[in-house]
Design a protein that fits this description.
Blueprint: H1 11-34, H2 40-62, H3 69-93, H4 99-106, H5 109-119, H6 128-145, H7 158-180, H8 187-208, H9 222-249, H10 252-255, H11 258-273, H12 280-307, H13 310-319
Helix pairs in contact: 1-4, 1-9, 1-11, 2-3, 2-8, 2-9, 3-7, 3-8, 4-11, 5-6, 5-7, 6-12, 11-12
Length: 320
């Protein structure tokens, strides 16, 4: 039996989880600055092609084995779902939807994952608290979008919101697919491969949608360049590296807290730095969405703890 019931984690874990909180929460604001004067799909494609190329080359030079065709296929599917369907929807929608609201809408990914998992024949069955969390989250989204009122200050662009909800759905499908996908043993190598596939997909999407004809290098602002650089260095390299390291060294309940901390960080950064509107309706929706994700996370963790045998629980306590 432990003398102290509160977990103690090394300082490195706290530094890494804090960087994930702040960095990933701030990427929504960086995207907003980047797409102000850059075509969204081309910007996203350049971001992930540069990030993925460096990650892939570094890991291969570090000694990671050459990926197989099957691993490339899995990484490409994940990259298309997460980065073209997911991030592509984000960069497009942030031309009209502020960064804080974008983060709240993307935070619905765990809600979609629960629904998809429930409908799948071999999916998991969830308890009543998870269902309550899903209902609470989608109620918060309904309040946030407010579709039956005329647009005014603080209201959300309906088309942009629908695209973001669809992007969240793509992200959920990609996340669920990645659970069983055949990927390299090195998480960073796999991440680099996914970025290369997703970046290539975004670049093609930008070309076919005519973004090349709308590019004006002289009109790209310093804020947009800084936003792109921030997304590459902090969002892709530092954020992803910290996250993949945490997955291997920190308890899953601690790592999963980023899902409901990031939207809060994004909302307040958007308010204080970009002067984005923060209405009472947005605050209520934020409490409902973030609360629903937290409720689902804690309910799932409690369900897993209850399913453990006494011997498994003892072993887990000794490892924590």
């Amino acid at each position: 039996m432990r003398e102290n019931s509160k977990p103690f984690y090394p300082i490195g874990i706290w530094i890494a989880i804090t960087s994930v909180y702040i960095v990933w929460g701030s990427t929504y604001l960086a995207i907003r600055f980047a797409v102000q004067t850059m075509p969204p799909f081309l910007m996203g494609g350049v971001r992930f092609l540069i990030s993925g190329s460096v990650l892939y080359l570094v890991r291969r030079l570090w000694g990671d084995l050459k990926p197989t065709l099957q691993e490339w296929r899995s990484a490409s599917i994940i990259g298309i779902l997460l980065l073209v369907g997911g991030n592509g929807g984000v960069v497009w929608a942030e031309q009209w939807v502020v960064s804080g609201v974008t983060a709240l809408l993307i935070a619905t990914a765990p809600l979609w994952m629960v629904l998809i998992d429930t409908l799948h024949p071999q999916g998991r069955k969830y308890g009543p608290w998870v269902i309550v969390g899903v209902l609470l989250g989608f109620s918060g989204i309904f309040i946030l979008i407010h579709p039956f009122k005329s647009m005014r200050q603080g209201d959300v662009d309906l088309i942009g919101a629908m695209v973001l909800i669809l992007a969240s759905l793509f992200w959920s499908i990609g996340s669920l697919y990645s659970r069983q996908a055949k990927l390299p043993s090195s998480p960073l190598l796999g991440t680099g491969m996914e970025m290369l596939a997703g970046g290539g997909g975004l670049l093609l999407l930008g070309i076919f949608s005519g973004e090349l004809t709308r590019v004006s290098w002289k009109s790209i602002s310093h804020e947009s360049w800084l936003g792109l650089i921030y997304l590459i260095v902090f969002g892709s390299w530092i954020g992803f590296s910290a996250y993949t390291w945490l997955l291997r060294t920190a308890p899953t309940p601690l790592v999963s807290t980023y899902a409901y901390v990031n939207p809060i960080v994004a909302v307040w950064l958007g308010y204080f730095i970009a002067k984005e509107p923060l209405t009472f309706r947005i605050l209520i929706a934020m409490v409902m969405v973030v609360g629903s994700v937290a409720l689902i996370t804690f309910a799932q963790q409690r369900s897993l703890r209850l399913k453990r045998t006494p011997l498994q629980s003892k072993g887990k306590d000794e490892m924590d």
